[in-house]
């Protein structure tokens, strides 16, 4: 477990290689074990760098000792009820788990949503990784439903969280 303080910041395109590396380490235990395969294990450095350049999208990174040890992707989206922020691909280097790094990344994602005037967060959890639901539940996230795609019925849990407005506290 890491002892050095962690700083959260918005990623720059030059961070893409380190982001991909963290995702590879964090999701390695699921490689060839989950169908359909996790996109976080197949995304390339150029894909991550390109997404970081798109307004309203990007990654937050957790940095300690000048090294990226965690990340989460964010995307401002339009839904039926208005704008929402999707947080996905939360990944923490296994050597830095249990130190609050993932929770700090998620809290920083919430801050981005609040600054953008967004009160609804969304995300996805693979059914095969449903043990993560307790983790998200402790941060106030709830299961909203399922997603399917051809050949993979109900393979994805849709999770969400409502943020209180500044007036609500």
Outline the structure in words:
With 169 residues, the chain is an alpha+beta fold. It has helices spanning 16-27, 45-52, 101-115, 132-138; strands at residues 7-10, 57-64, 67-79, 82-92, 120-126, 142-149, 152-162. It has a 7-stranded mixed sheet with strand order 1-2-3-4-5-7-6, sandwiched between helices. The protein starts with 6 loop residues before the first strand and ends in a 7-residue tail after the last strand. The model has no long low-confidence stretch (mean pLDDT 92).
Entry keywords:
4 helices; 169 residues; 7 strands; alpha+beta; globular; Aminopeptidase; seven-stranded mixed beta sheet; single chain
Layout of secondary structure:
Blueprint: E1 7-10, H1 16-27, H2 45-52, E2 57-64, E3 67-79, E4 82-92, H3 101-115, E5 120-126, H4 132-138, E6 142-149, E7 152-162
Parallel strand pairs: 4-5
Antiparallel strand pairs: 1-2, 2-3, 3-4, 5-7, 6-7
Helix pairs in contact: 1-2
At CATH level 2, the architecture is: 3-Layer(aba) Sandwich
Q: Give start-end ranges of low-pLDDT stretches.
A: none
CATH superfamily: Gcn5-related N-acetyltransferase (GNAT)
Largest sheet: 7 strands, mixed
CATH class: Alpha Beta
What radius of gyration results from the CA coordinates? 16 Å
Number of helical elements: 4
Mean pLDDT: 92
The beta-strand count equals: 7
Short account of what is shown:
With 169 residues, this protein is of the alpha+beta class. The protein is built from 4 helices and 7 strands; from the N terminus they run E-H-H-E-E-E-H-E-H-E-E.
